[in-house]
């Protein structure tokens, strides 16, 4: 495994080994999760019966193209397992997620799961969260006022940095599947992820943030030398 994509495939393959016939499965979003969805498609072709909830429209389209049975959380009370990627994961299994813009649905699906397992390449493993910009999903109305509230809330827990409105490829503001904007917070370092998560959740205008605290049971991290397991996969 000499390149990040090979590592992502290796982590996805290890996670695919956790899937069992009859499972209700959450399907993540992003470059690493895409490899996992491809493998789930192979399991379905081989006869495995699954009910899968995608975390984005992009993942839903991929799953349907592969013949993977897709359902929603309106029809499934609880998921057995969710497998998703992460932009950063620390030793306590705190995560930054949302580079793909699906953080709101990803968090809803993770919270509805008995287990959430993260798959990642070694570059996503960090000592302290924050080098990767933290996505914060906000309502469109009053975005400038919301930005100021976020800055104040973050400063209260020792975080500061530029908040950048995410743009789509055409230059317009990026719009999530739920119709919101995303502010990417370049804090560089988040000394207390739980405190920042609580502060952001209390700011009017914030729909959700990309800090996943206490949701991840285990992580499969692939490097050039093999696959490491953080936490528990069971």
Describe the structure.
This protein folds into two domains: 4-125 and 213-229, Rossmann fold (3-Layer(aba) Sandwich); 134-203, ACT domain (Alpha-Beta Plaits, 2-Layer Sandwich). It contains six helices and 13 strands. It has helices spanning 4-16, 31-45, 57-65, 103-111, 143-155, 193-201, and strands at residues 24-27, 51-54, 81-84, 88-89, 95-96, 116-121, 134-138, 162-165, 181-186, 206-209, 211-212, 218-223, 226-231. Strands 2-1-3-6-12-13 form a six-stranded mixed β-sheet, with helices on both faces. Strands 8-9-7-10 form a four-stranded antiparallel β-sheet. A three-stranded antiparallel β-sheet has the order 4-5-11, covered by helices on one side. By secondary structure, the chain is α/β, with parallel strands linked by helices. The longest helix is centred in the N-terminal third of the chain and has 15 residues, at 31-45. Helix 1 (4-16) crosses helix 2 (31-45). The radius of gyration is 17 Å and the shape is globular.
Quick structural summary:
With 234 residues, the chain is of the alpha/beta class.
Largest sheet: 6 strands, mixed
Backbone shape: globular
Spatial strand sequence of the major β-sheet: 2-1-3-6-12-13
- Unreliable stretches (pLDDT < 50, length at least 5) are none
Strand content range: 15-25%
* Helix coverage percent: 25-40%
Cα(first) to Cα(last) distance is 26 Å
For the CA atoms, what is the radius of gyration? Answer: 17 Å
CATH class call of the largest domain = Alpha Beta
| DSSP, total strands | 13
Q: Tell me, rounded to a whole number, the average pLDDT.
A: 97
Q: Please write the string of helix (H) and strand (E) elements.
A: HEHEHEEEHEEHEEHEEEE
Structural class comes to alpha/beta
Which CATH architecture of the largest domain is right?
3-Layer(aba) Sandwich
